[in-house]
Specification:
Layout lengths: L1 H46 L1 H4 L3 E3 L5 E4 L45 H17 L22 E3 H15 L3 H11 E2 L10 E3 H13 L2
Antiparallel strand pairs: 1-2, 3-5, 4-5
Helix pairs in contact: 4-5, 5-6
Length: 213
Amino acid sequence: DLRMAGTRRQKIAMTTHVRPALVIFAGLALLTGLAYPLLVTGIAQTVLPKQAGGSVVLGVNGRPVGSELIGQNFTDPRYFWSRPSAAAGGPYVSYDGTTLTGSGGSNLGPSSADLRREVEGRIAALRAADPENMALIPADLVTASASGLDPDISVAAARYQAPRVARARNITEDTVHQLIQYYARGRWLGIFGEPRVNVLALNQALDALSQGV
């Protein structure tokens, strides 16, 4: 009889405590792990389909060529160059599980000799690509961003590169400056950040101009 009473108490405890807990767990799992993500995704795809899809940029052939949100590494003098990355090869470097490297920031401070050498190397590369350009080099062309993924450069950085791009493409600097002005975006809400231009969009415009599109 005592054993039967003990078994009965265990069943009652299961019904009273464990089963409601399992029901609540399953309900919350369905709500937060399935229903909510599907609802948010559906709203995003309806209201902001491009942004929800990663702000993908399509080429003239309709194929994806990149994203408005992620920088690319341009080295051809015919193109505007992006902001450098703290990781080698930037501004976008895929994560390498072997070397544990990828796009990212740097913890080098203003007094770091390594940082000074990196900046001097970037300055030398810009001067070598356009020896006749003696203008001051904007800081964002020689200093890496926190993420290493910046898709934009300052308007000043774009204007600095205009002579090189114009010469490499055999077009006038005025034409290049007009493109920069057209694609330039102002401060967010008029007060945050600095005027900037998307490098991929600007380079696409240059290619379209060259192809007469």
